[in-house]
Amino acid sequence: MTDVRDYPNVLVMEHPLIQHKLSILRDEKTGAKEFRELVKELAMLMAYEATRNFQLAETTVKTPVTETTTKVLAGKKVAVIPILRAGLGMVDGILELIPAAKVGHVGLYRDPETLRPVEYYCKLPEDIGERDILIVDPMLATGGSAAAAVQFLRDRGAKEINLLVLLAAPEGIDEVVRTCDNIKIYTCAVDSHLNDHGYIVPGLGDAGDRLFGTK
What we know:
The chain is α/β, with parallel strands linked by helices. Helix content is 30%, strand content 32%. It has 6 helices and 13 strands. Helix 1 (16-26) runs antiparallel to helix 2. The protein is globular. The two termini are 30 Å apart.
């Protein structure tokens, strides 16, 4: 089993609020409306941690009392890139924290013959190479889609890439770390393994279906 201590660029978020909300998210009795709200809230909490090392610059403001020196965000702007379709559920939570971020989209499907991810849609900000990137997808299962998305973005000039997933399987972490250099992975939990159908165990089922009420 993957030991995340072997991977300094993998961060498991163990904050009590995150773990509490994740437990409700896993519950099969949680309906689509509450599931969507929880995914949004978890994405916001994850973005808080993933932006911890963003650069700051000093500025001067005048309060009702006096003038003072304060700090504001500096450096690169942000792009949020959901992997379609389930990644869409994480976007709004991040935008509440970073409303000026631009949003791109990457759509992938798995070729039934080669089992390789194939891009069917990719729309990115024109200045993608100048932005800090947050790729979002609720589940990191085999890691194939996430690794492919990273490569598609790198081919278009992206440099600083972070991957935010609610749950990860050891197999997915191994695949992304093996194939993608200089990427940070943020997750709420690393589960046991993948079953024969490629689902994370214990997991939470199909995140896309639970988000959008489909089967």
